[in-house]
Amino acid sequence: TRSFHVTGVQTCALPIFGVWDAQFRGSWVAYLACTISTLGYAVSALWTRRYLSPMKIDPIPAVATQLIFATAFIGIVSGFISSTPTHWPIDGLLSIFALGALGTGIALVLNYMIIQRAGAITGSTVTYSMPIVSTIAGVVLLHEDVHWYEPSGAVIILLGIALVQGFIPRKISSN
Q: pTM for this structure?
């Protein structure tokens, strides 16, 4: 039942996306990608807890292997769904490396460490605050507009995290 509560927290991110927007300023593909990736956080945390944590794998080689296979997979898939680049700008290649190796790599190593030390539930709830951080960054750095559903979505996410982490007591039914 705990995994149900974990996946329930991901659905709390939907108000931030404003999925009911009648003018539909977004794209269904983007909403679907966000939903699938968010569900992936729960699956990966539970998978890591069940299969990887008991093996006491060092996080750095595990993450390096994961990123190498993901890069190879994306490279193969992109060969079929995108056009051939006309040139390879160094700033673009460095950006890809920085995002993949530094951003994702460090985040995954930290995630593995959190799961090993504090458990999958705690590790997965850390990632749920990312939409809040990215929304705040968009407003502060890019001067994006704030809509009513973004702060309300943030409150729902924080309440979900508090509930899952046990900061808010739950009534357990005896039925």
A: 0.59
